[in-house]
Amino acid sequence: MTPAVRVEAGSLTARGERTRSRLVAAGEEVFGRRGFHDASIAEITQGAGVAQGTFYLYFESKRDLLRAVVEERGHELRATLARATEGVSGRVAKEHAGFAAFFTWMARHRALYLIVRQVEYVDSEVYRAWYRQLADGYAAALQRSADAGEIGQFDDVETLAYALMGIGDFVGLRWLVIEKHRTVPPRALATIVQLVERALLAPPPRRPRRGR
Amino acid sequence: MTPAVRVEAGSLTARGERTRSRLVAAGEEVFGRRGFHDASIAEITQGAGVAQGTFYLYFESKRDLLRAVVEERGHELRATLARATEGVSGRVAKEHAGFAAFFTWMARHRALYLIVRQVEYVDSEVYRAWYRQLADGYAAALQRSADAGEIGQFDDVETLAYALMGIGDFVGLRWLVIEKHRTVPPRALATIVQLVERALLAPPPRRPRRGR
DNA sequence: TGCTAACATGAATCCTGACTCAGTTTCAGG
DNA sequence: CCTGAAACTGAGTCAGGATTCATGTTAGCA
Predict the structure, then answer these.
(1) Where are the alpha helices (DSSP H) in chain B?
(2) What is the pLDDT of residues B97-132, one digit of tens each?
(3) CA-to-CA distance for A20 and A25, rounded, in angstroms?
(4) Which residue numbers of A have CB closer than 8 Å to B's CBs?
(5) Beta carbons within 10 angstroms of residue A129's beta carbon
(6) What is the gyration radius of the CA atoms in chain B, in angstroms?
(7) For A204, which residue in chain B has the nearest alpha carbon?
(8) How far is B37 from chain A, CA to nearest CA, in Å?
């Protein structure tokens, strides 16, 4: 019997690497269009230009491919956001750059909106990780800005991070998925940046702090 | 051949009504726990305490049940939010009451988080309607408050509505789904109400308006 | 050139579970 | 206390599609 070695993730020749990434891209496309369960391996392999059997040289199962799509695109998104904001000074300007980069990236990968939401039932850890990793990076960046005195002090930076992520997610969702626009209009970006600016720069609350 | 009349939505006896709503509740539970595709009619009917064939007296298909779950719970949620805010005066107080009611309701129906996100592939109109109806009501309420001078003027109330929905959705998602808490902690509620307060009450932007 | 690991093929298998159907039970009103 | 319309039953059918596998092809290197 042939050893039938499953191709390992790292040890691929250039040819193998190309095939694998074509499968990931085709998976993103088909999962987005059909949903995880209605996406067939036949359609995915067709999209990648390979035979069905080839699929199983690179992935253990359909679920495994979904995991790979979410994890790899997650890396890309986080790297894109980090790159977009690293050179920018001032919290509000960083938010502006970050939201703009997020909308641009999501417009190219709108399928991810629906794909991430399906992964809960395939691998709930991957689902949680998608949000946690984004939130952790965001919260850390906000904390740094707070420490630098660029924004008011917030005693719950994590909640702040989720709130801001929610703003970006929903405004993107509206235009890219619900209304099926090609991009998020500049006016929407301007509105939320203004909203965020007011929220972050406004003077600290007048109410006295209560214990507990 | 027996006419095999499918039971119509409105014309049900009390017994039929009870069975139907047991199926909807069981559907909510099983769809939430297993996901749409892995939810079996067998498990749903078992949960409702009826035989499999009974299912098809009330719903055309599994998809049809999912639609019904989302539509009926959507009505309930919108009614709950309207009731929670109608007596309250002042925009910030309304927001506080609204977010609190949203978190309470979602804590009881956290499965909806995942269910709504699956309905895109079953009936995308139902998916869009869930968000649009919530956003429309929210935007209208915000506009009324703006007209009453309770908050600053915003020229894009719709985007504002989606942004605020996003805040509630994500903060709820974090605690109820990602971190699997039983409730959203008061501290998180306080943080976002404060955030919203600052954003809505802050003085209008200093920047000059640019035409077009 | 010949060799071999890596890569690729696609038809056949096999399981799962939505949906059907021929009949049974309930119960309100006559 | 009958009758029929409404409600209910659950075993069987059947299609779809993930996964397997026996076999073929490519390409770098001795």
Answers:
(1) 14-34, 41-48, 52-58, 62-86, 91-108, 111-118, 124-147, 157-172, 186-201
(2) 999 999 999 999 999 999 999 999 999 999 999 999
(3) 9
(4) 34-38, 114, 117-118, 120-121, 128, 131-132, 135, 154-156, 159-160, 162-163, 165-171, 173-174, 177-178, 187-188, 191-192, 194-199, 201-202, 205
(5) 16
(6) 21
(7) B198
(8) 7
